[in-house]
Amino acid sequence: MKKLLNRQLYLHARPQGIPTPEHIHLREVPVSRPGPGQVLLENLYLSMDPAIRGWMSEKASYFAPIALGEAIRGSTLGRVIESRHPDFREGDHVVGIACNAWEDFSVVGGEQVYKVSTDNGFPLNYHVSIFSAVGLTPYFGVLEIGKPQLGETALISAAAGACGSLAGQIAKLKGCRVVGIAGSDEKCRWIVEELGFDAAINYKTCGDLTKAVADAFPKGIDVYFENVGGKHLEAAINAMRVNGRAALCGMIEQYNDTEPRPGPTNLIQIVGKSLRLQGFIVSNYFQHLPEFFAEMGPLIKGGKMKWEETVEDGIENAPKAFLNLFKGANFGKMLVKIGPDKAV
Ligand SMILES: NC(=O)c1ccc[n+]([C@@H]2O[C@H](COP(=O)([O-])OP(=O)(O)OC[C@H]3O[C@@H](n4cnc5c(N)ncnc54)[C@H](OP(=O)(O)O)[C@@H]3O)[C@@H](O)[C@H]2O)c1
After folding, report:
1. Has residue 298 been placed in a domain?
2. Same domain, yes or no, for 176 and 229?
3. pLDDT > 90: what percent of the chain?
């Protein structure tokens, strides 16, 4: 194999608050060679996930913190360029969820990645976005926890993002009236006019969010899909109906907090309304990826389900793309293309 250099983004300092260029640095290191049972990947797409912000801090989470000096851990789609694992051959395309890194080349255990098809008519990058963790998340969150029923109502926060845009469309398919909350008029227009939401609330301009949500649901909310937390959660709890279900997917509003923020002031309503609020982690559902693909693939192909991506180019732009998640610069899923080509 010809000598290659690996451009790698690593955690230089732990951010307090919003990360800046001070915290994530780029370096060049020699490419590691795979040991027995491992493969060497050339990464083509990096998945930008808000959860990575949590791994940059020392706080306990469902994943170990990224160590100072360690490459930024994440999910990638790559091409195998050397294999010492019997199940993988050079040229295979594979996805690794939260086990690869923001780098040109990753060495990873064969059991940590799975092969993806390159001839099913979908763009290759879909296999690290809609047909991967970020698609599974709203699918199981809405269906298993939200349990939407025909004629019910659903509220989705961060509704123009990756999880939210899909969550709303899934609730809609199940026959709900769906309202999304998003951070700009353009996003609100998009989710209503393009994605088929029934209504949208711009949380930055609506004034009192609790009132705006209550006004949008005269008879109350049955299903809430939570991506944001804080005032969004408070507004949802206030408008939820008796026996309402909330799927707690994430709380991005607080990921950059330096001090604990006060919780919703109306938690007591959970008792009186017999509400069910349940958190979940997508890794619990990975074994269902094939059935998810079988159901969602035709819907995407037939245009019944819309999927949008915001794709930045170049590994050097990954920190900016990542921070843009917290500024709301993305429509749908945020990816960074770093490979030499987009083609298979
Ligand atoms: N439980 C799981 O296994 C799992 C898996 C994947 C993701 N998640 C969680 O799901 C949520 C969405 O993730 P995603 O990957 O789909 O990201 P995303 O929604 O595509 O991007 C994040 C969006 O959040 C909104 N946002 C950012 N900061 C905000 C703030 N302070 N207040 C209100 N809105 C804010 C922005 O939209 P606006 O322009 O509308 O503000 C931004 O576009 C996150 O909380 C993430 O941690 C959980």
Report:
1. no
2. yes
3. 92
Query: Is there an atom of ligand 1 within 6 Å of 227 CB?
Result: yes
Ligand 1 lined by 187 (C-beta under 6 Å): yes
Place of tokens 């050397």: 82
276 in the same domain as 138: yes
Q: Which helix (H) or strand (E) holds 178?
A: strand 177-182
CA angle 146/162/248 to nearest 5° reads 35
Pocket-testing residue among 132, 192, 252, ligand 1, by greatest number of atoms within 8 A of Cβ: 252
For the chain, how many structural domains are there in total? Answer: 2
Residue whose CA is closest, atom 31 of ligand 1?
253
- Would 82 be classed as within a structural domain? yes
Residue 297 inside a domain? The answer is: no
pLDDT for 273-311, tens place per residue? 999 999 999 999 999 999 999 999 999 999 999 999 999
CATH number at residue 254: 3.40.50.720
Distance 136 CA to ligand 1 centre (A): 15
| Burial 12-34, CB ≥16 within 10 A → b, else e | eeebeeebeeebbebeeeebeeb
- Write the residue with the smallest CA distance to atom 45 of ligand 1: 250
pLDDT tens digits, 216-253: 999 999 999 999 999 999 999 999 999 999 999 999 99
Domain extent at residue 263: 134-283
* 174 and 235 assigned to the same domain: yes
State the residue for tokens 């019997």: 86
Cα 50 to averaged position of ligand 1 atoms, centre (Å) = 6
Answer whether 95 contacts ligand 1 (Cβ < 6 A). Answer: no
Q: How do residues 53-82 score in pLDDT, each as one tens digit?
A: 999 999 878 889 999 999 999 999 999 999
> Domain check: are 123 and 83 in the same one?
yes
